Amino acid sequence: MEEQIIGGASDDIVSIGPKIRKKTFAKKEFPRKVRNERHSMQSGKGLQVMFFGGVGKIGDNMTALRYGDDILVIDVGVGFAEPDMPGVDLVIPDMSWLKAHKDMIKGIAITHAHEDHIGSLPYFLDDVKATVYGSKLSIALIEGKLREFPKVNMKSQAVNPGGAVQIGCFNVEFIHVNHSIPGSYALSITTPVGVVLVSGDFKIDFTPISGETTDLSRMGELGRKGVLLFMCESTNIERPGMTMSERVVVQTLDEIMASHKQNRIIVTSFASNVHRVQQIMELARKYNRKVAFSGRSMINTMEIAMKIGEVKFDHKLIVDIEKADKLKDEELLILGTGSQGQEHTALDRMVKGEVANIKIGSNDLVIFSSSPVPGNEKSVTNIINQFIALGAKVIYDDLSDVHASGHACQTEFMIVHKLIKPRYFIPMHGEIKHLKYHEQFAISMGVKPQNIVVPHVGSVVEVSNSGIRELNDVLAGEKIVDGKTVYDVDNAVVRDRLQLAEDGLCVVVFGVNKNSGKLVNMPELIPRGFIYPNELSGIVKEARQVLIDAVNNAAVENEKPDWNELKSTTKKVLTNLFFKKTKRKPVIIPIILEV
Ligand SMILES: [Zn+2]
Ligand SMILES: [Zn+2]
Questions:
Q1: d(Cα 392, Cα 269) in Å, to the nearest integer?
Q2: What is the number of the ligand closest to the CA of 60?
Q3: I need a labelling partner for 320 at 20 to 30 A (CA). Which of 63, 387, 411, 587 fits?
Q4: How far is the CA of 198 from the centre of ligand 1 (A)?
Q5: What is the pLDDT of residues 257-282, one digit of tens each?
Q6: Are the beta carbons of 351 and 361 closer than 8 angstroms?
Q7: pLDDT tens across 331-390, in order?
Q8: Nearest ligand by distance to the CA of 54
Q9: What CA–CA distance (Å, rounded) separates 264 from 324?
Q10: Residue 99, by phi and psi: left (phi above 0), alpha (psi -120 to 50) or beta?
Q11: What is the pLDDT of residues 221-255, one digit of tens each?
Q12: Relative to the alpha carbon of 114, which ligand is closest?
């Protein structure tokens, strides 16, 4: 098999979009590969897969399929802010290319209702009017989310497991899979060039606590008929074996509750894992405890799931958290949000003594039925330590089987690869290391190396019966959400915040004679966040002197002072001095009074 490298603006490379701009981090690590299987493709004949997020980092999942004038969008997720973005709430994919081609968008298919798959919908549906398709629970949770965005309307259609809808030229079948939220789907998309199977987030749980096992028979059937392209998540691709069944988690929680009958029990879990939450409530009933919810998101999610019949529970079991202290310790189980150690959530407020009359002490047993999302390890450790410092006993997933991942491990990946036997393969939903690992894994499962593309944000991959290859990139990247407004990642406000946080600031006030340009008083300096008290008076004294010299030297006989020049001189001399003394470059704010 010959590998042909196509470079430059060859005629048969279809360039779509008004302007191609590269602005993503992944480029350097990822030399773009252009591959061709034997025959070169005819322009425009193929199916194009476009990546707007979810590859190169976990989060921001958003992919589009384009054939001719039809676009199908798959998932519209958020990412989380990096440590170098202080005060930023969310990161969302740059969706401007899709918005510019909104007339071509025939529909939006949602695999499941985790934030990294639905969280950017409010910032997409404000402009794009296409119908959103997903499970009953996904649609209900999205509707709940959109209540915070009254100006955003959604047309939606819930699809049952095994159901299919025609979206433009794509026939999309929704296949049931196990994951850590009910109503999760893989998508089998019949396109004019063949079947594309998108795994969504999945695992294979042979003993789920609720519902069915991932629909392997359907996947096998599709594999027998022939799958052109398999696009598969890669989160836990490095982990051998099988993901633990949800049933083990429930058994472990049962044993823990049986051996801690006298303790007050506090459990935290992901709010969206509604079956787990329901099981914990069932255990509370078994051990004669009432359940108090703490944290809005858990209550909201459970109410939505109950309304559509996804979970059932007896309201008599629930007690208001405000009245929870009236119960004895052994009669109470608190279900709280904040498993990631985030500020202002139920657990965070509990350790600070801010939740009703709940005072954490030695009779409390706190169970983290969750695991840290990558990046949150430190804050989770912090909150665990805070509970322990207050005397509580804490059980978390390193100590006991109190959590099961929602993502497949290697044995499960082997099963789906062998059932689906795709001709072409694209790994997704992972950092670069996960995607590259999955590429090798797929090769070991029998996919030809030249039939795999590892994408990055902005990749456009063309697939047809004669080959798979990358075309020119499309405009893609990330935007930040601060409050409710969307901005570019690199902006002056965030840069200022970083500088203020790292280097502090200094306000300097002085008066200058409007005719002579000479200083009329001693400059006032107000430094914040970069000078320690023992150095303060020395540095301020020196700063005053360099400023006096600089301003007076700049003054020219019988000439009015140049105010802009004065400002930049002030910034320059103070920056130099402060850097010499403290190795910091604070933000300097000169206030010059004309006297
Ligand atoms: Zn998920
Ligand atoms: Zn995900």
A1: 18
A2: 2
A3: 387
A4: 13
A5: 999 999 999 999 999 999 999 999 99
A6: no
A7: 999 999 999 998 899 999 999 999 988 999 999 999 999 999 878 899 999 999 999 999
A8: 2
A9: 11
A10: alpha
A11: 999 999 999 999 999 999 999 999 999 999 999 99
A12: 1
Cα 519 to ligand 1 centre (Å): 64
Nearest listed ligand to the Cα of residue 53? 2
Using CA atoms of 210, 211, 213, 215 in order, give the dihedral in degrees to the nearest 10.
-160
Instruction: Catalogue the E-assigned strands of 55-126.
Output: 55-56, 62-67, 70-74, 79-80, 90-93, 105-109
CB distance 116 to 90 below 8 Å:
no
**Which single residue is written with the structure tokens 């929704």?**
174
**Other Cβ atoms within 10 Å of 414 Cβ, number:** 14
**Nearest CA-CA partner of 456 in 54, 38, 19, 185:** 54
Half-sphere exposure of 410 (CA within 13 A, CB side): 13
| Residue 247 neighbours by CB under 8 Å, 6+ apart | 205, 207, 208, 209
d(CA 61, CA 53): 5
pTM value? Answer: 0.84
For residue 413, give Cα distances in angstroms to 193, 308, 426.
25, 32, 14
Rounded to the nearest angstrom, the distance between the alpha carbon of 118 and the centre of ligand 1 is: 10
**Residue 526: enclosing H or E segment and its boundaries?**
strand 524-528
Distance 137 CA to ligand 1 centre (A): 13
Average pLDDT in the chain: 89
User: For residues 501 and 86, what is the distance between their CA atoms, to the nearest angstrom?
Assistant: 9
Which own/partner contact pairs does 545-548 have at CB distance under 8 Å and 24+ positions apart? 546/573, 546/574, 546/577, 547/508, 547/510, 547/523, 547/573, 547/574, 548/519, 548/522, 548/523
User: Letter for the amino acid at 42?
Assistant: Q
Element containing residue 431 per DSSP (H, E): strand 430-431
Task: Say what the pLDDT of residue 485 is.
Answer: 84
DSSP 8-state assignment for residue 535:
H
pLDDT at residue 518 in the model? 87
Nearest ligand for residue 180 CA: 1
- CA 273 – ligand 2 centroid, Å: 13
Instruction: Compute the distance from residue 6 Cα to the ligand 1 centre, in Å.
Output: 36
What 3-state DSSP class applies to 160? coil
Ligand nearest to the backbone CA of 270: 1
Could you tell me the two tokens for 93? 């994919």
CB 313 within 8 A of CB 278: yes
- Cα(518) to ligand 1 centroid in Å equals 66
DSSP-derived secondary structure letter, 67: E
Q: By C-alpha distance, which of 322, 231, 324 is closest to 284?
A: 324
Q: What is the 3-state secondary structure of 107-157?
A: EEECCCCCHHHHCCHHHHCCCCCCCEEECHHHHHHHHHHHCCCCCCCCCEE
- For residue 60, give the nearest of 19, 24, 15 by alpha carbon: 24
